[in-house]
Amino acid sequence: MVALSYAEILLNKAIKDYGDDHPVGYGGETAYFIPAIRALSGVEVTKLGEFVPILNKMRDLVRSELTLENALQWGESVIHAAEIIEAVRYATGAHEAPPKPWTGFIPDTYVRKWGIKHVDWTIPGEVVIVGRFRTSEDAIRIVNKLVQKGFMLFLVDEVIEQLLEQGYKFDIDGWPIYPLGNFTQVIHAVNYALRASSIFPGIPAGDKFNHRNYQRDRILVYVMALGERDIVKVAACFAAIYLGFPVLVDQPLEEDEIWKDWYFYVDDYDEMMQEGIEVRGIKITAIEIDVPIAHGPAFEGEAIRRAEMFVEFGGGRSKACELVKMVDQDEITDGKIEIIGPDIADMEEGKAYPMGIVIKVYGRKFQSDFEPVLERRIHYFMNYGEGVWHMGQRDQNWMRISKGAKEAGFTLNDLGKIMYAYFKKEYAAIVDRLEVNLITDEAEVDKAIEEATAKYKTRDDRLATLRDDAVEEFYTCTLCQSFAPTHICFVSPERTGLCGAVSWLDAKATFEIDPTGVCQPIDITEKNIIDPVLGEWSTINEEAAARTQGKTTEVCMYTMMDRPMTTCGCCECILALVPECNGFMVTTREHKGMTPVGMTFSTLAGMVGGGNQTPGFLGLGRLYLVSKKFLPADGGLGRIIWLPKELKDELADQLNERGKEEGFGDNFADMIADETVGETPDEIMPYLEEKGHPALTMDSLF
Crossing angle of helices 2-18/51-61, nearest 10°? Predict the structure, then answer.
């Protein structure tokens, strides 16, 4: 078979040039060795010579008879052959400096980064496009349609060049559209998918049956195989089918070549896109709105630099605020969008203008506690517009409109349409009427800021009293179970979900919106307390057992040393015990370096993720680190001895404020080591001693 033979030639040459013991891997960018081979065969390959028996086994399994069983076996063999080809290229340096914008192998960081978007169906599925559209215009049109529907895309071969011809700009940090490279690099779409089944549900290496089931049932992928076919490309198509991914081709097939719903011909590209969605059972929730720009979650990561900006609002350049307020039904007109002051067409390029965003809401089931929940969504929904950029919140917000959006005819009324549509879609269960006011008249913005400031203070005063011991209910969050079936978060007022995206108020609102959904209340009144110090409740234990298939039967909310909450691949941070320093280190998915426990974030996540309960390790959201209920049974804030500098800088003010409250002085953040101090216990201990870090005088954790 051609793919196996090519792999064998490259491998033999590499072994001859570099030796059997030459190391292989993807440059330290994955904790899963050679991921596709590890997932399907269970072998954690580290040296060139270890590929030889794998290649021989795959060659022994293929048969020339034209049967369905053999075709699927060819598919499995192609996966192994392609992974070996790419791994050999990396091992011998042949992958270096790939033509821009090729990505080649995609690091674990991105698999985890986009995990939550799959979980909440912001990303409804994935499309692998291999080959060449008939025209570059077809390429840009179909890719734009798929992006607006929210798809993750993997692009291979000439389609990349076609998009570049059309001026397409790739930004994999903004949205996951991966231009992988030439034909064999399609394996990086496969090893991406197989890492998802290794990371989120934690399927063991070599459990081929469950990896394939997970791919078929949960990783909603289909393949568009374009252009002329040959034996290698057909075998690669069966590699996709082997994993449960249907393949649609744009070249006519003979009747005996068609496999209904798995391998078939569609001539029209728009119809091909739609049939792929239907045959894969993908549910599209994208909204059609009559505005002159594209919109959807794919544009959420778009940056608008000053040179690309037409006008901006807030951000210290001008006055601005945003407010969601509950009103009575006679104070609101559903769907009304009012612009008070000059619109975009009346503004001067490059200037900053005031902006007040006031959204009125009425709903029979709406509560004032939901106001800040919806208010935070302004950030997301504004960023859904192509050419619209937003950051911050409250009266610290900052917005920009691009020159391209203005040239397309975009207006503030269009911005109001986008926000109205997405709010009504996402919060249909609690929002009956919604009105959007966009204010650019300075005097009216001043009035809006005065009203908003008073509202912020009222909320803050309310939230200041919102403590774990002041409520009678915590909430579950099982959103991530679509990827990690045995993981469950317990969300309290002082502890967000480990993804950092679900607060207690968010969970409460989610329950109100969908009483049978992923967030369910748990009675934590005194009658159900088992251990108030560890934070153990009988009701939480019962819910954990019921919702983790019996894998986790006991959970303690206030410790990570004794039956802690489970962890999944969506966590913002991972906490780990550093015994030598009698404290905890924290790392983030953004930090790619080593940590004082000798593991990177990816390695730690591979060890403790997938719904595992691992004493001494814990996934968590960033803001939980500065909560008053941060692991009090373990010593709380004073146990934090190491953070990545980026995280330490971000939380410095809150760390210092909390440090004062705990009696650690005025500058607790400075007591915490980071990578600039060192990455091993031996390197950071002198720093902790010099600073008088409180963890060094606390009781031993073990």
Answer: 160
